[in-house]
Amino acid sequence: MAAEGGWRPAGGGRRRRRRHREEEAAAEGGAVLRRLREARNDLLSSGFWAASAGAVRAPLGGTAEPPARCVCYGLGRFSCCPAARHQLAFLLLLLEELGVPPGRCSVFDPAFSAQEAAALAELGLRLLPDNEEGKHGIEGSATLFYMVHCGKALYNNLLWRNWSAGALSKMVIIGNSFKGIEERLLSRILQRDYSYIAKVLKGTEEVALPAHPQYLDTFNDTSVHWFPLQKLQELSPEVWDLVEEPTYEECEIIRKEDRADQRSATAAEA
Fold first, then answer.
1. Which CATH number is 28-240's, of 2.170.130, 3.40.50, 3.30.1120, 2.30.130?
2. Rounded mean pLDDT of 57-62?
3. Assuming Cys at both sites, which of 28, 30, 128, 143 could form a disulfide with 108, CB separation 3.0 to 4.6 Å?
């Protein structure tokens, strides 16, 4: 098509549109990171982080090995959700406090957008490629699991995957209070559906994050959990005998097949 002063190059409009989209994405990514810095400043200025630091350091006051790496599940849509953004800002402060480099922190949530994945990469965090359903083995490395407000099945799956005194003693879990789970569930349901949580309760130390009026919904029912080797060794030997992989009739987490079904449906509609 002729243009004033000559011919318009083929595909010039497509290139401009692509460049415009890239510029928009870069601007949106910058806005996400700016809001994240604001969330960090909120945590620091409110005093919540300072008040939480004692709970965060509690496992290190005994014989627990300092974590060398971190795994984060269930963070949520932090680009548009203030609570998720504050949880991510807390995680970044946590990594600084414990001396864990961002590159040794792996993150996964099936809800992440491409923009959020890019922001996490910009922060130096590593995105896990697959939905592990919480079944992440520590492979001998002391590991912090950051799992605020995750479904009970994720905690249960994580415990199952690392079901030995040696592995559990190298783990710290920040997430929903195990004591709270025990109090809220009928004993028979806990024993039947979340048996690994039930079996590890007597081998668990737990310290709750402090309540703060600004973050009642963001960090409510959140505790730091660790598993001292001595306490684990005092559990009945029968506790360690049954290592059957958990199954759930009704599951409050997104499973691998759920994500695959969603992709298949999307492809069929395209």
1. 3.40.50
2. 82
3. 128
